[in-house]
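Hey forum,

I'm writing up a methods section and want to include a predicted complex as supplementary material. The small molecule is flavin-adenine dinucleotide. I've pasted the protein sequence and the SMILES. Can someone with a working setup run it? I'll credit the forum in the acknowledgements.
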Amino acid sequence: MTEHVGHVEITEAAMDRLLGRLKGDVLTPDYPGYEEEVLGFNRIARHRPAVIVTALSSADVAAAVSFAGEQGLPVAVQATGHGIAAAAQGGVLISTRRMSAVSVDPVTRTAYAEAGAQWHQVIASAARHGLAPLNGSSPLVGVVGYTLGGGLGPLGRQYGFAADHVTCLEVVTADGNIRKVTRDQHGELFWALRGGKGNFGVVTGLWFALMPVRRLYGGGLYFPGEQAGQVLHAWRQWTPTVPEEMTSSVALLRLPDVPDVPEFLRGRLAAHVRIAFTGTAAQGERLVRPLRDAGTAIDDSVREMPYADVASIHQDPVHPLPYHERNIVLRELGSDAVEKLIRLAGPRSGCGDLMVELRHLGGALSRPPAVPNAVGVRDGAYTLSTLSRPGSPDTVLGPMEPWGDGRRYLNFLAGPDTADATADCYGAQTLARLTRVKTLYDPHNVFRLNHNIAPLA
Ligand SMILES: Cc1cc2nc3c(=O)[nH]c(=O)nc-3n(C[C@H](O)[C@H](O)[C@H](O)COP(=O)(O)OP(=O)(O)OC[C@H]3O[C@@H](n4cnc5c(N)ncnc54)[C@H](O)[C@@H]3O)c2cc1C
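Reply by user p_vandermeer:
Happy to help. Structure tokens for the complex are below, copy them as they are.
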């Protein structure tokens, strides 16, 4: 017998075979639990797969990929749903959220994270040993999705991208095989996975180095929106002078008037400077002085803090919401660029974006790692990204392109039409090499419901 699952026909025997191979479950659109399972953090789009496999193990992932191959269906992966690019329509969605094991080895200073683990788990486990991972601004983001896309976080200028410190990956490739991938085993795949994201297989587990960081001088300075211009100018003059131990960013926030948002930010424009400094508090205080003097802060939480409190630096949203994330990489940020940005997104601009954010790159982020990888934004000086409501056109990034270096940062692309921007995330040589690896490991583009790199025909 044949079942019609959405618009896809799958024989009952094939479904039974799949179920027989799984420890986890299979959910189809008419099944209770399907709607909840497809919901991710970003509510701008929702996967509508013909079949969801709620994976519990690498073997489950392998069974799901083999099944998709037999049926000629594409595969999507979802851990937290922070980074949805292309909604799965009629394919197989592998939901990894139940595969959430994390372990830390304080002797080798390494961590292991399963496919569905989130950063807060690693941060807490590592902190017990005075160690820190290279997580990003939000502890709710998935370890694997973040790292495969590069991974730009508060320790970035000192230690580089998270992808630079991966030592081993366990991956299910399009042929359904479970492979251990290191610099010495499947070396090209090792290069491509670290920066090329979900294009080459489903990563079931990741091993990576931890950093000897137990504390920071860090936090946020919030200034009223009318002072955005002076704050941005102070920050752009300051960033080229700071040591690599200082990683910072500044965001223009226009947050809604809702109880989730701190009262002093509700329904108004604010400039938020974020600081993460691994030197002493006394050095940090001296360094941050010009920024404190740039205006009259309405809130100042920059202080000596345990690394485990790192989420308090950015204070990213913790409840799901719909957003469209786009970015360009800037090669420089002169006075003229800041003036333009203020006209586009400052207090008198009429800009409606929830957030317009600049992050300072350079330092270790600009150097190739010990084992080279596919991360494509090493030459940039800053990222400029926007978080806007669904359907909002870009009013900021296009006009700022004269200061761009022609690249985009893969992890800061989320929303249905951002998949088209994938090629902009790499230089021509890197893209050509990624395409060759894709052709070798996924010639039929089974993994295409993502920021896709197509194989050669
Ligand atoms: C509030 C917020 C803060 C953020 N902060 C940062 C930051 O500081 N720095 C930064 O670099 N990024 C940041 N990001 C972006 C984030 O890293 C990406 O959205 C990332 O893709 C999220 O991965 P996920 O698994 O949580 O999301 P999901 O939506 O579940 O997955 C996104 C994509 O990742 C890939 N993927 C996930 N799991 C696997 C797997 N097991 N195998 C293969 N591919 C997989 C797939 O292509 C999938 O479509 C942030 C995003 C948000 C919303």
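Some notes you might quote in the supplement: The chain has a mean pLDDT of 96. The pocket of flavin-adenine dinucleotide is lined by residues 40, 77-85, 96, 115, 136-138, 141-142, 144-146, 148-153, 197-198, 202-203, 316-317, 411, 414, 450 (CB under 6 Å).
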